[in-house]
Amino acid sequence: MELPFAESYKIKMVETLRRSSREEREKWLKDSCYNLFKLRSEYVYIDLLTDSGTGAMSDKQWSAMMVGDESYAGASSYHLMKDTIKKLFGFADFLPTHQGRAAENVLFTVLVKPENIIPGNSHFDTTKGHIEFRKAHAVDCTIDEAFNPTLNHPFKGNINLNKLEKVLKENPIEKIPFIIVTLTCNSSGGQPVSLQNLKDVHMLARKYGTRVLFDSARFAENAYFIKTREKGYENKTIREIVLEMFSYADMMTMSSKKDAIVNIGGFIAMRDHDLFQQASVYNILFEGYITYGGMAGRDMSALSQGLMEATEFDYLETRVKQVAYLGEKLKNYGVPVLEPFGGHAIFIDAKKFLPTIPKEEFIAQTLAIEIYLEGGVRAVEIGTLLADRDPETRENRFPELEMVRLAIPRRVYTNNHMDYVAVTVANVYQYRNTFKNGFKIIREAPILRHFTVELDKIC
Ligand code: F0G
User: Fold this and answer.
1) CATH, residue 375
2) Do residues 376 and 235 both lie within one domain?
3) Which domain holds residue 340?
4) Domain boundary among 267, 293, 310
5) Residue 341 lies in a domain
6) Domain-ending residue, one of 310, 338, 369
7) Inside any domain, residue 37
8) Catalytic one among 27, 59, 72, 398?
9) Ligand 1 close to Cβ of residue 255 (< 6 A)
10) Is the Cβ–Cβ distance between 182 and 201 less than 8 Å?
11) Catalytic: 344?
């Protein structure tokens, strides 16, 4: 017999999970104003809210924490991180930050001015938030194929070069400080960008005289997809692919809570030393001195080790295969899921799942709430709540895709947990026709509303 696939690690420490009853969950959810972000974590059995900062660190990462250097300036942990970033991405200058959005805040304070235009592939919400907060505009140039949830395209994170060139041609280039490429593209389903596309975007940036920024939170999963899907890369190592990917970027922002497998941390890295010096001022102002930027020395040491582990093929294979395992299960139960499966999460097509709920009643949120009630599984809405209001008209923005994301923390759950999640969702799918109404907003914040929004049932 052919030997089956199995995880590339074993478990050394465990955490107890508690199951609850549907009655308990109904009460907790009402008390949380039907916002899953407001639930206490002990009210959740399997937490697929996010893969951000929720991964399990390795024994080597924990031991790196013990030898972290907590010096205010020039700590050896900082130099370890600097060397790791140079080795993996090729950038000599970097600034640590406490997480990804802090990296955006520091860098965009230097680069983004009112009325600027930032083209990219389905900007992540904090990225878009930091652009719009500065009265600039994010223009989505993702390929059209990405908006067809069942179309099988290997690189649905790709940028449509015609759309991008149109933006570059029709606007004064001084208004376009950079193009942003998100690897993998979270907002369109954890979908990868091909190396060819990265190269083409770089060429267009050079042709028109602007720069390229990679939003790199899931860069290693992106590299795995390049190795397994793009011709010519099958025999390259993940690290060789990563180095080539980043040769087409001028700078990167990183949320280390994803593909550096740490619970907190981030950074900015760049080629331009002048830009580094300008950004250093804001790093000191917002984050901390340039050799720690909101991170403890031990966190920088664990992060450096995490970056090395995340760029090992065996780790990535285990990771991406677990996500696909859940995707296959759901597909077999008839649940409409986005395909191909993403690198960090399975996305359920909520419009197809609940066709009778009007879009004004938050289709994907209605589904995420029901998944929690059915099995204590916490997912997240990637739909109208997340898309927020248009900053000028204040009208709701209705995205083409209404999705529920089941994001899988790194090295945390077993495939038995995935089986449980799949049956939870399949049960809801069985009784989907009993759904009549969705939800209405009672209170919302002016920006990034989904984190704190309060909802009530429409009866
Ligand atoms: N960019 C991408 C592509 C992200 O997915 C995130 C965070 C960020 C930037 C911001 O990083 O959280 O460290 O400040 N995504 C999380 C998620 C929150 O659940 O997908 P952060």
Assistant:
1) 3.90.1150.10
2) no
3) 22-51+313-457
4) 310
5) yes
6) 310
7) yes
8) 72
9) yes
10) no
11) no
Whole-angstrom Cα distance, residue 180 to residue 41?
34
Side chain identity at 185, as an amino acid letter? C
DSSP 71-127: -SSS-HHHHHHHHHHHHHH--SEEEEESSHHHHHHHHHHHH--TT-EEEESS--HHH
Q: Establish if 425 belongs to a structural domain.
A: yes
- CA torsion sign for 392, 398, 404, 410 is negative
CATH number at residue 100: 3.40.640.10
Catalytic residue of the set 217, 296, 310, 350:
217
Per residue of the chain (459 residues), what is the pLDDT tens digit?
999 999 999 999 999 999 999 999 999 999 999 999 999 999 999 999 999 999 999 999 999 999 999 999 999 999 999 999 999 999 999 999 999 999 999 999 999 999 999 999 999 989 999 999 999 999 999 999 998 988 999 999 999 999 999 999 999 999 999 999 999 998 888 999 999 999 999 999 999 999 999 999 999 999 999 999 999 999 999 999 999 999 999 999 999 999 999 999 999 999 999 999 999 999 999 999 999 999 999 999 999 999 999 999 999 999 999 999 999 999 999 999 999 999 999 999 999 999 999 999 999 999 999 999 999 999 999 999 998 888 889 999 998 889 999 999 999 999 999 999 999 999 999 999 998 899 999 999 988 899 999 999 998
Nearest CA, atom 19, ligand 1 = 50
Tell me, in angstroms, the distance from the centre of ligand 1 to residue 247's CA: 23
Q: Categorise residue 276: left if φ over 0, alpha if ψ from -120 to 50, beta otherwise.
A: alpha
Any ligand 1 atom below 6 A from CB of 126: yes
| pTM beyond cutoff 0.90 | yes
Are the C-beta atoms of residues 367 and 401 closer than 8 Å to each other? no
To the query of whether residue 200 is one of the catalytic residues in this protein, the response is no
For a pocket test of ligand 1, which of 52, 108, 125, 385 has the largest count of ligand atoms closer than 8 A to its C-beta? 52
**Same-domain check for residues 142 and 257:** yes
